[in-house]
Every structure is written in structure tokens, then in C-alpha cells.
Target: 3-phosphoshikimate 1-carboxyvinyltransferase
Amino acid sequence: MKDSIKLQANQVALNGTLKVPGDKSISHRSIMFGAMAKGKTTVDGFLLGDDCLSTISCFQKLGVDIVVDGHEVTITSDGMESWKEPDEILDTGNSGTTTRLMLGILAGSNIHSVLVGDESIAKRPMKRVIEPLRQMGAKISGRSGGQFTPLAVQGTDLKAIDYTMPVASAQVKSAILLAGLQATGVTIIREKEVSRDHTERMLRQFGATVNCKDGVIQLQGGQKLAATHVEVPGDISSAAFFLVAAAIAKDSSIRLEKVGLNPTRTGIIDVLKNMGAQLEIEVEPDTEDKEPIGSVSIKTSELHGIEIGGELIPRLIDEIPIIALLATQANGTTVIKDAEELKVKETDRITAVVEELKKLGADIVATDDGMIINGPVTLTGGVLKSYGDHRIGMMGAIASVISTGPIEIEQASCISVSYPNFFEHLRNVSTSETLR
Ligand code: S3P
Model:
């Protein structure tokens, strides 16, 4: 099957209003929490991306009743005690969030299960989750002593730990919290740099008490979750592609509505502002534990290079590929540092971003913990690899809005991992005849 897409050089204005699909992190968690809680949980705005569908399929194999009706999902559960031991493997597909958070959930269950993902998941480090879970008493075995999938989990009784996070990772933090919910005692997690806090917020939405102060999170084990309604905001990580597109294309103006504006995720907004983008934000009034949402409007902008590092990195880790493209159009040098985590994403995103943008003529070099980009540079066309990584594929596709020649993206279908209607949205905002 041919799995590539060719986009014509498309040097035209981009205009319009979009509602990007639901947030991937929150969609995953809505299924997991709904399956752990007793009662009927309803979810609105669910992301029907491949990763979140993997999460649904894993819980269906555990016997949880999940009904999908468009972007509305209903999860009916009698709590974890009612789950059945699966007689098949749990396939987590391309999803690191599914794999890591499920390890935390299953560790304290009363069943045996085996988790397997695709070839990208098989390379991603699991030791970072297995290690703290084993300290809690978890029985997990796997390839290379439990460092890689396939992983087998024998659910057992867990005890709370006091854990200082060695890397800023919401997946690791969430796995520990979900295990901690089932453990005896108070689980304490200490974060040097704050990572996305969707798990903490959702714990409260489902009726649990969790204390977060000065980078220390405390959760009493044994609390039961109560089913509720979850509204999933638009994914700011998906919105980022169109924010950058409008900032770099000529005579453009795009408005994105109902986007999640959780401060642990809005690093991309800070970067755009700091680079000089013309950006307006309207935040909708929110309540404490709900996810903040709002609309973001952006226009073609005169941009300048900046340094991006430190505590900002966890707040924009998934946006770095598209930020690198943005930096090719900014005056001066952009330095991205402290981002070694990019090497263990769906692919090594330092290598992938640098290699693919170089093919288009970008002035970009890889460093040990990021990249250095000089701009502005006119980008040419070319044939780009996605490496099976949705965000690398979308970065290449957005480059076509300013490139002087056509851009072909290989293995483009991976984009459906997080943004199934990406190309439809690109067509909707483009004024180009070839895209319409
Ligand atoms: C996610 C956390 C981040 C992010 C990933 C989704 C989550 O990973 O890159 O796309 O849903 O918790 P890490 O926590 O490993 O940094």
C-alpha cells in the first residue's frame, strides 16, 4: 500500500476558524478513569485518534463496557474489581501514554496481563516506570529485565512510596499516581520541573483528594473514584501546527476555538509571543479543577530567534518539531536546549527534525540536548520521512505552506495517531486551488 502524500508548494494565505480534535492526553485518561470508577462516565469531545482507540480496545479486553458514538463515549464500570483477566494480549499500538499509565493501573489490580505495542513502543524506555512501580511492590517482568515491551504484569498489593522524579515526565508521574491510588499509605511525588497535570485534575474531577504544592504531590491510597462527565478540550499540541502555519504563511489569519489552555501545556504560546508573533487569547471562565479552555487567534508575524530551555521544555515537549520549523522563518538564531527527552519519543525527534528540515534547505544542527536553527531561510520542496511519527509528518506538511516546491511525506497515515482530520483542516484554511 502506498502510504505517502504529496502536497504542492502552496505559497498562499491561510484563513479561517478551526476546532482542533480533542486533547490526546485527556482523552486517554477519561477512558482509564471511567474504567476504574464505579458507575457511568460520559465523555464529550473525545479524540478518535489511533492512540486513544488503542486505550479503548485495551479496556474492552478487560471487560469494561465502552460505547463510542461519534466524539461521545460512555464507559460503564463496576470498578476495577469487576475487570476480567484478559485471554489476549493488550495491544497499546503506538501509544506511550497507554503503555505507561496502564502499567500503573494494572500493577495494583487482581489480574494478570501482557502489554505489547508496535515497533516504536518496543524501543521506548519502560524502566523509568517499572523502577518506581517495583519499589511499590509491583510484579512486572519483560524484555531486558523489564526495560522494554512485551511486559507482563501480575497485579498485587502495593504500598505507597516517596519518589523524586529523575526526569520530567507526566507519563511516569501518572503511572505512579494511578498505582498510588490503589496502594496502602500516602504516595508522595516530587517534581523538579512540573509536567502536565491532567491526572491530578482528573483525580479531583472523579472525587479523589490530591494535594499539590511547590512541586510535591500527595495522594492517599484506597480512595474510590466516582463516575462523572468529562469535557475534552481541543488539543493545544494539534493547534500548534496551525498556529505556526498562520504565523509563517503570508497574509494569514487563523482562529482556533475551544483549545485547552492548561498552563502546564501552553509553552508554545509563550514561545510564539517571545518570538514576536501577533497572537490573541480569550480564556473562557473556568473552575479550579476543570481544564481551562479558550480561543487563540494568530496572524502572519515578523519573528525573531530566541533561546528555549529549562522549565519551559516539559510545557512544550511535543511542540518542538513544529517550533523548529517556525524557527527556520525567524530572524537570527533559535537555540533549543535541555530537551534530551526528544530522543525517546515516538522516534528520535532531534535526529528526525534536523534531518528532514535540512532536506528542505534549513540551516539547522543537532546538539546533544536539542538543536540550533538560523533563519530566515527559504524552504524548498523535497521528499520527507515521517519515521512513522505523527508530529514529524505534520511538521513536514505544514512546511508546504511556505515551500517553493512540492513536499512529499512518506508514511503519512501515522498522522491519524493524534489528528485524524489534519489534511481536511489544512484544506479548509488554505486559499490554494490545488489543495481545495
Ligand atoms: C503525555 C506526556 C508526555 C507527552 C506525551 C503525552 C501524557 O510524555 O510527550 O505525548 O499524556 O502524559 P512524557 O510524560 O513521557 O514526557
